[in-house]
Amino acid sequence: MQCIYCKKGKGKKEFDREHVLPELLGKFKNNFVLHNKVCKECNSYFGNNLEVIVGRESFESYLRYSYGIKKFNKHPTNRIIIKCRIDGDFKGALMEIILFDKEKDTWHGDLLPQVAFIDAAGEKHHFVKGNIPKIQDLKDKGIEIKGIHLIGKEEFIDDLIGELGNNGIDFQKKGSQSFPQNYDNPTTVLVKIRAQIDDINLRFMAKIAFNYLAFSQPANFVLNDSFDLIRNYIRHGSDIPDRLITIDRNPLLQGESSNHSFTNGHLLTIEWRGGPIIAKVRPFNHVTYRIILCNSFGGIYRSIKIGHHFDIKSKTISKLQGIRHIVLPH
Ligand SMILES: [Zn+2]
Fold this sequence. Notes:
Oligomer: single chain
Strand order of the largest sheet: 11-14-13-12-15-16
Bound molecules: zinc ion
Shape: elongated
Strand content: 25-35%
Structural class: alpha+beta
Distance between the termini: 39 Å
Number of strands: 16
């Protein structure tokens, strides 16, 4: 038995069940599972290094709350930037999401303790407590400080002043403002969520695509050397050429537009018409990760046209009809 990721030959006991679509994206009836294809070592590597991070700190992790896949938990925010969109002094201030109201589909945000440096052009540069740059770093970045705005609850202000002092930034207090809404309670504010998309996200999506290929094709197909590039990228994060994975927001289903979609479920497709084998992974029908699984296959050609819809409401999986013009089954 050979693992499709590390390609090591191992005994049956060293293999694990592997969900084609990780359960963090939902649980489905008759879920697609790979048996004896992914070894325990690779399986736990993915769990600890890809799934944990995507589950907590990706845009998809926020979509899970919106669509009721998971109850909201407060997040670490290292990889996600959330900015206040209320016009005025607090616009652009860094926030964290502290609550999600499923009924109203609204996020409740809270300001992080931070400073905003206002430069000569009136532009603001926000830095959270503990991450305030030294005066020299600001100069190196070409930021000339004309004003400083300290933002945060009263109890953090002294910390901010201390940190500024340690970093060689002196200032005189001129006044104070309060947050335009009832800041002591979780309030509903317009926020802009910007999540970092990096190799962790892309490898996670590529793994879904590769699992799906392994699930739908005969056992030896995915072990072909033609897939080593994508395999090693998923398993080890090794380099891949640019453009092997691209992201776009264009609708995948026929008849959908940017403001009208038929589902919030996940869509998966793979197509091979000679040339590259191309997978599309579209979590929550939100953005498409287009993944070239291999550019040219070094074996016998067969036509592949498969697609599935993972319905997050009914928890069912159904086959998509058509690949070029995809429609949901009735
Ligand atoms: Zn393995």
